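Run log // design_07
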C-alpha cells in the first residue's frame, strides 16, 4: 500500500506545524532527517513522536515503511543506512573538492549495487530450481 509513495520527493509543508503533518509528509520529513543525520539510529523515535504529535510506535512503523521504501528503490534498514552514508560521504567529498575520491566512492557504490543485483538474480534462480525439484519430487 505505502510502497507506491515516493517519500524522497513528497512535499513537506513549511508553513505547518509538524504535529499537523499528514503521515506521508511526516515520513518524508523523517527520511530527510535520516539522510541529514547519516543513519536512522541517529534519530530518537520517542522525541520524533512528541514532535509530530504521535506515538513512538507510529514512528517505528514510519521507520519500517521508509526502510521498505528504500529497499524497493535500491534491502531494509541496511540499504537505508548505506544510502545515507553514501550520500553524506559523497556530499562531503564534493564540498572539499575531492573529486577523484568522490569518483572512487561512486564507482565502488555502483559495483556494490551491481553485486547486489547479481546476488538477487542468483537467489531467484536457486528458488526456481528448488521449486522445479519439489514439483518433480511430487509427480
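design_07 sequence
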Amino acid at each position: 500500500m505505502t510502497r507506491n509513495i515516493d517519500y524522497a520527493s513528497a512535499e513537506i509543508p513549511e508553513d505547518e506545524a509538524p504535529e499537523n503533518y499528514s503521515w506521508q509528509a511526516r515520513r518524508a520529513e523523517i527520511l530527510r532527517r535520516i539522510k541529514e543525520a547519516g543513519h536512522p539510529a541517529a534519530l530518537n523515535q520517542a522525541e520524533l513522536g512528541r514532535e509530530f504529535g504521535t506515538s513512538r510506535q507510529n514512528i517505528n512503523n514510519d521507520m519500517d515503511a521508509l526502510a521498505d521504501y528504500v529497499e524497493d528503490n535500491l534491502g531494509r534498514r541496511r540499504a537505508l543506512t548505506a544510502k545515507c552514508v553514501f550520500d553524506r560521504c559523497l556530499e562531503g567529498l564534493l564540498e572539499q573538492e575531492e573529486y577523484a575520491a568522490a569518483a572512487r566512492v561512486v564507482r565502488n557504490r555502483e559495483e556494490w549495487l551491481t553485486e547486489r543485483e547479481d546476488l538477487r538474480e542468483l537467489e531467484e534462480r536457486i528458488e526456481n530450481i528448488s521449486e522445479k525439484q519439489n514439483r518433480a519430487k511430487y509427480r
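The chain has five helices and no strands.
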